[in-house]
From TrEMBL:
Entry keyword set: ATP-binding, Kinase, Nucleotide-binding, Serine/threonine-protein kinase, Transferase
Protein name, as recorded: Protein kinase domain-containing protein
GO BP term, pick one: protein localization to kinetochore
Signal peptide: none
Domain Protein kinase intervals: 26-155
Domain of life of the source: Eukaryota
MF annotations from Gene Ontology: ATP binding; protein serine/threonine kinase activity; protein serine/threonine/tyrosine kinase activity
Length: 155
């Protein structure tokens, strides 16, 4: 999987199905999704709790883009950490770390069930589901505006 070598204490973890973020070991269970920037895995921590791990493989990009990509990763993590407690509709960021020696960035987050794409396929949404999604979207936009992230909706 290319997760690189990680160390916890004196014990070297040379298992490609494990990775360490800020001293905490996670075991990969399966791939949840993959995009141009990162791969998302379902993983388990040392206590058996399940999380999603978004892993950014910066070696995929040309060296001249590395600084920009790493800065984007760190900015995304800081914003997500800030927003995590501001609305129940934001994913909670558990931890993150960029490891220059591995050229990899890790974001460990709460593991959700399903995805919006799954809910949106098939039949049209009923009124109750549409209202629920609408309230969540408005709550998210309000939290983003309060945090002064993105464009203001006021004109």
């Amino acid at each position: 999987m290319g997760l690189g070598l990680s160390k916890k204490g004196n014990k070297s973890l040379n298992d490609p199905k494990r990775f360490v973020v800020n001293g905490h070991t996670y075991k990969i269970i399966n791939i949840v999704g993959q995009g141009g920037e990162a791969t998302v895995y379902q993983c388990e921590d040392e206590n058996g709790y399940r999380h999603a791990a978004k892993v950014f493989y910066f070696s995929r990009f040309p060296p001249q883009q590395l600084r920009q990509r790493v800065d984007g990763f760190l900015k995304e993590a800081r914003i997500l950490r800030y927003l995590s407690g501001r609305s129940p509709h934001f994913v909670t960021l558990v931890d993150y770390e960029y490891k220059p020696s591995e050229n990899v960035g890790y974001m460990v987050m709460e593991l959700g069930t399903g995805c919006l794409r799954q809910h949106m396929q098939g039949l049209p949404l009923n009124d109750q589901a549409r209202n629920m999604f609408w309230r969540q979207i408005v709550g998210i936009l309000k939290a983003l505006e309060d945090a002064q992230i993105g464009n203001s909706m006021k004109k």
